[in-house]
């Protein structure tokens, strides 16, 4: 069975995020997802969407307490919400932020990568790929309003956005810290970082698993603006206004020109990337590293 849930229309691949859901009722889900969003807002258990149709934007808040770790459920709901907004011509931009105090997202859910079977790892990784592709190639303007810690997969999500505003709090560190867990950031995580902060800075940041505090994150270009915590949302809104002042077609074609080659690299090897992940994460040594890391996280409290 092909692992990639997508279909080709002309030169465009349309991904169907729910196609890999176990037992998904495709027709019903598809028609629901393609409905108009309107002004009332919508959301799901873990993704809150606050639309402002008059402004053409929506604020999307991740709310999977305590730390917005990217579980399969959160990934699924995230992609469905994104697609709803993408398919509604009313919307031109999304501000992506967190509803969990102090944390933007703790990154991939370690529980999804520990003690499970290969089929689960494959399903999980496919969902991670899907979210990245959706975000990275989104036609909408995406602004990350980073109001909390932003490690690993959380950082990756913010890096897919067109602009990042980070709250000025020393606890709100950001970076790809995979090596600290004894794991390796996949090539498309690395590519996304290199495209943002350049090769040499990425090399150092990735090998050392650096989590940058706000001033350093700004200095290396990991974020575009650092502002007091109570100004993150208003700053994101004014940045959005600037981006929306550009005609959509010109901005979208330019974004696509800048990003397509990076995305295509993964699109062309999704299945082998899944196999690599499953093989890597299933290793006893890697499972042990992740367990040790989880243990340290839990100990921190006690
Ligand atoms: C050859 C290569 C081939 C293929 C590629 C192979 C592999 C690549 C594989 C994976 C790539 C992964 C990228 C990732 O995203 S891994 C996740 C990395 N994330 C982190 O390191 C963050 C860990 N968390 C924290 O640092 C902190 O929790 C915090 C700063 C985000 C928040 O701190 P708090 O003090 O507010 O909260 P805590 O008390 O620490 O946590 C509360 C609660 O949540 C649990 N938890 C935290 N993070 C995660 C997580 N990522 N997944 C699951 N659970 C998490 C934590 O254990 C606490 O649980 P309990 O309440 O103790 O039960």
UniProtKB/TrEMBL annotation:
Entry keyword set: Acetylation, Fatty acid metabolism, Isomerase, Lipid metabolism, Mitochondrion, Transit peptide
Biological processes annotated in GO: fatty acid beta-oxidation
Domain of life: Eukaryota
GO cellular component, one term: mitochondrial matrix
SUPFAM superfamilies: ClpP/crotonase
GO terms, molecular function: delta(3)-delta(2)-enoyl-CoA isomerase activity
Presence of keyword Mitochondrion: yes
EC number: 5.3.3.8
Protein's UniProt keywords contain Lipid metabolism: yes
Gene3D superfamilies: 2-enoyl-CoA Hydratase, Chain A, domain 1 (3.90.226.10), 6.10.250.170
Family of the protein in this entry: Belongs to the enoyl-CoA hydratase/isomerase family.
PANTHER family: ENOYL-COA DELTA ISOMERASE 1, MITOCHONDRIAL, ENOYL-COA HYDRATASE-RELATED
Name this protein carries in UniProt: Enoyl-CoA delta isomerase 1, mitochondrial
Organism lineage: Eukaryota, Metazoa, Chordata, Craniata, Vertebrata
């Amino acid at each position: 069975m092909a692992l990639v849930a997508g279909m080709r229309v002309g030169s465009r691949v349309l991904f169907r995020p729910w196609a890999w859901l176990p037992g998904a009722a495709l027709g019903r889900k598809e028609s629901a997802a393609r409905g108009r969003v309107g002004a009332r807002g919508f959301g799901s258990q873990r993704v809150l969407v606050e639309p402002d149709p008059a402004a053409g934007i929506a604020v999307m808040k991740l709310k999977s307490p305590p730390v917005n770790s990217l579980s399969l459920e959160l990934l699924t709901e995230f992609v469905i919400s994104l697609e709803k907004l993408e398919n509604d011509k009313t919307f031109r931009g999304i501000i992506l932020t967190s509803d969990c105090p102090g944390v933007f997202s703790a990154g991939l859910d370690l529980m999804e990568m520990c003690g499970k079977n290969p089929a689960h790892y494959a399903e999980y990784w496919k969902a991670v790929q899907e979210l990245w592709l959706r975000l990275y190639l989104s036609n909408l303007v995406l602004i990350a309003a980073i109001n909390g810690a932003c490690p690993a997969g959380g950082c990756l999500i913010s890096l897919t956005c067109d602009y990042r505003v980070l709250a000025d709090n020393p606890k709100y560190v950001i970076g790809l810290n995979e090596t600290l867990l004894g794991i390796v950031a996949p090539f498309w995580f690395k590519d996304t970082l290199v495209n943002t902060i350049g090769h040499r800075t990425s090399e150092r940041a990735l090998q050392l698993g650096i989590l940058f505090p706000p001033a350093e994150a700004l200095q290396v270009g990991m974020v575009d603006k650092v502002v007091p915590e109570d100004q993150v949302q208003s700053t994101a809104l004014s940045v959005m206004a600037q981006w929306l002042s550009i005609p959509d077609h010109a901005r979208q074609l330019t974004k696509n020109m800048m990003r397509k080659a990076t995305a295509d690299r993964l699109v062309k090897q999704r299945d082998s990337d899944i196999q690599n992940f499953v093989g890597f994460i299933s290793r006893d040594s890697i499972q042990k590293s992740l367990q040790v890391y989880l243990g340290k996280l839990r100990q921190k409290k006690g």
